[in-house]
Write a structure and sequence with these properties.
mainly alpha; 3 helices; about 65% helix; about 0% strand; DUF1127 domain-containing protein; YjiS-like
């Protein structure tokens, strides 16, 4: 039975590139989540008190829903 050494060091700069891509990806997800919350708050803010009551919310809950 042969044994192979499967551990090799990463190529030069690979870890730095990975961390940069991960940072950009995390930043994109943060902005996307913020935008989704903003759109939700705006849509709920346009509803009347009667419409909000129909879905079980009050005007004060709109800010908490977006978070």
């Amino acid at each position: 039975m042969a044994a192979f050494d499967t551990t090799r060091p990463a190529p030069f700069g690979a870890i730095s590139i990975f961390r940069f891509v991960q940072f950009v990806s995390d930043a994109y997800l943060t902005v996307a989540n913020w935008n989704d919350a903003r759109v939700t708050r705006n849509a709920l803010g346009k509803l009347s008190d009667r419409e909000l009551d129909d879905i079980g919310l009050c005007r004060g809950d709109v800010e908490m829903i977006g978070r």
